[in-house]
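hiii, so i know i said id send this last week but things got crazy w the move. better late than never?? heres the sequnce for the chain we talked about at the cafe, plus the structure i predicted for it. fair warning i was half asleep when i ran it
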Amino acid sequence: MNATLPGPAPRLTVEDLSVHYGGVCAVSNIGFTVEPGQSVGVIGANGAGKTSTLKALMGLVPRTSGRITLGGTDLSRAKARDMVRHGIGYVPEGRHVFPGLPVEKNLLLGAYARAWNKEVHQQLDEIYDLFPVLGEMRHRLAGALSGGQQQMLAMGRALMSRPRLLILDEPSMGLSPKLVGSILDVLLRLRDEGLSLLLVEQNAKLTFGVTSHCIVMENGEAAMAGSSAELSHDPRVREVYLGL
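okay and structure toks below
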């Protein structure tokens, strides 16, 4: 499946991003980059600020401060719809599919920012190749799908925009080990095809298996950062996040 837009993916740069909810600081001056074709993971405990970081990046919650650029374009004030038009796909925590619509219509909604032509319908076949169960259930209401199938649908919907960077928030949450393995296989396939990935996960093993670089968040800050291979062998990370 060619999930990417023509040409190389742009470089995402996040600098000094902060988020406050009322008087509470959820994210404090975090910064990172996602290079073209790179896969970056963010791990941390509940409440560490992972989801707030992604939501602020996507323009879904107000950014207290910070600068976001994509391929040199300043998106610091951009809303979520603008992010999609600039080539960023987003798979939210909790899937958020449209339960009263069939699978296929959910997928087509992911292409809202694209010109409506035969390529959109051709891409449906690519999504069904990536997730065969969605093809089998294309006329079934999304609300009737299992949690794992809904996760596949949320990923397929984001890919319908043909992103050059795909952001995923807790894609393995609530899934059985078998389904987690299926999601891992898809992410590896997308990564190997050159799609840039930014992955937030509590499942550190999955994250280290997919990404080349990783950030460990604690209390809204980046406590550690480095290559996924190095962090996976760090004694503290192994004890806290891998249970070893």
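btw Residues 50 and 200 are 6 Å apart (CA to CA). thought thatd interest u
miss u guys!!
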